[in-house]
């Protein structure tokens, strides 16, 4: 025969029920395990992966194209013995003809889903890589472009961003606005035959009030004009922009040049693309 609960037992039952209910609510608040990713990657790790990375084992297949006028793009061992297989972009420096400037560059990024191009307003992308140059002849008053964010499609003109070696022993990041006014965002002495790491952060926009640029050099965020680490910039021109690595130079410079490239990557965060090791 059931006996009525005493006040003491009644309080114990209520307490146990509350504990059980709290546990059930906590379990319900936890997200259900996701389906396994290829290779067993955790979902957070999958989101953090670079959107694009060039694998030297695939030769130049991960680039949308190469421009060799004249020159070669090859996969070689890092001559310093530090970073393994790397890309060597070499030009003899001999012009093909009068109108054609000397260049040897990679162009863009090829993925399984097609070319990765920057064209959507408001997107934030980070481009990271490791560069070494040598030989790299320069001349006062002339320039050598080593990396550029290049515009394509109707209305394409001067690239919004260019990393340039100058004839004064420096390298700088130059911004060109839609009115073709240039601003030197950053500069430093150029050191040949040694590796340097770069990451450029870009908010994609045709509006200079919405777009921006950031720069890291050898792992350190750089101060840009205005005293901030972020500079307002119109980074989208024409139909889309993409980036290029290599050597592209004005006509006054003569002689062979080599640009070494390691760990090029594109992603949504600095951590996704910053060169490691």
Would you kindly provide a brief summary of this structure?
12% of the residues lie in helices and 39% in strands. The chain is mainly β and 277 residues long. Residues 1-27 form the signal peptide.
Architecture overview:
With 277 residues, the protein is mainly beta. It has a single domain, classed as Jelly Rolls (Sandwich), CATH 2.60.120.200. The protein is 12% helix and 39% strand. It has helices at 7-29, 43-48, 270-273, and strands spanning 52-53, 65-69, 72-77, 85-91, 103-107, 110-111, 114-115, 124-133, 143-152, 161-166, 170-176, 182-189, 196-203, 212-217, 220-221, 231-232, 240-249, 257-267. The strands form three sheets. Strands 1, 3, 4, 8, 13, 14, 15, 16 and 18 form a nine-stranded antiparallel β-sheet that branches. Strand 11 (170-176) and strand 12 form a beta hairpin. The longest helix is centred in the first third of the chain and has 23 residues, at 7-29. It is globular, with a radius of gyration of 26 Å. Residues 53-100 are annotated as: Disordered. InterPro entries: Polysacc_lyase. Residues 1-27 form the signal peptide. Keywords: Lyase, Signal. It comes from Streptomyces lunalinharesii.
Instruction: Work out the helicity level.
Output: 10-25%
N-to-C series of helices and strands: HHEEEEEEEEEEEEEEEEEEH
Say how many strands there are.
18
Helix count from the secondary structure assignment = 3
């Amino acid at each position: 025969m059931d006996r009525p609960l005493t006040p003491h037992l009644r309080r114990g039952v209520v307490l146990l029920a509350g504990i059980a209910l709290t546990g059930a609510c906590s379990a319900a608040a936890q997200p259900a395990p996701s389906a396994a990713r290829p290779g067993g990657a955790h979902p957070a790790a999958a989101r953090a992966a670079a959107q694009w990375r060039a694998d030297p084992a695939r030769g130049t297949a991960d680039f949308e194209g190469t421009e060799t006028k004249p020159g070669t793009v090859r996969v070689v061992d890092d001559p310093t013995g530090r970073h393994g297989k790397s890309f060597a972009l070499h030009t003899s420096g001999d012009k093909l003809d009068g109108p054609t400037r000397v260049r040897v560059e990679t162009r863009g990024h090829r993925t399984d889903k097609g070319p990765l191009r920057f064209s959507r307003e408001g997107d934030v992308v980070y481009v990271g890589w490791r560069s070494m140059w040598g030989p790299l002849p320069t001349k006062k008053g002339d320039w050598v472009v080593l990396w550029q964010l290049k515009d394509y499609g109707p209305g394409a003109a001067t690239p919004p961003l260019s990393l340039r070696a100058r004839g004064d022993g420096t390298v700088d990041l130059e911004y060109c606005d839609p009115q073709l006014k240039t601003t030197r965002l950053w500069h430093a002495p150029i050191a040949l035959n040694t590796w340097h790491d770069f990451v450029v952060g870009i908010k994609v926009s045709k509006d200079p009030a919405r777009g921006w640029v950031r720069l890291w050099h050898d792992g350190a965020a750089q101060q840009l004009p205005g005293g901030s680490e972020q500079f307002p910039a119109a980074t989208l021109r024409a139909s889309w922009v993409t980036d290029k690595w290599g050597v592209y130079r004005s006509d006054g410079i003569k002689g062979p040049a080599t640009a070494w490239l390691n760990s090029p990557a594109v992603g949504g965060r600095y951590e996704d693309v910053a060169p490691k090791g």
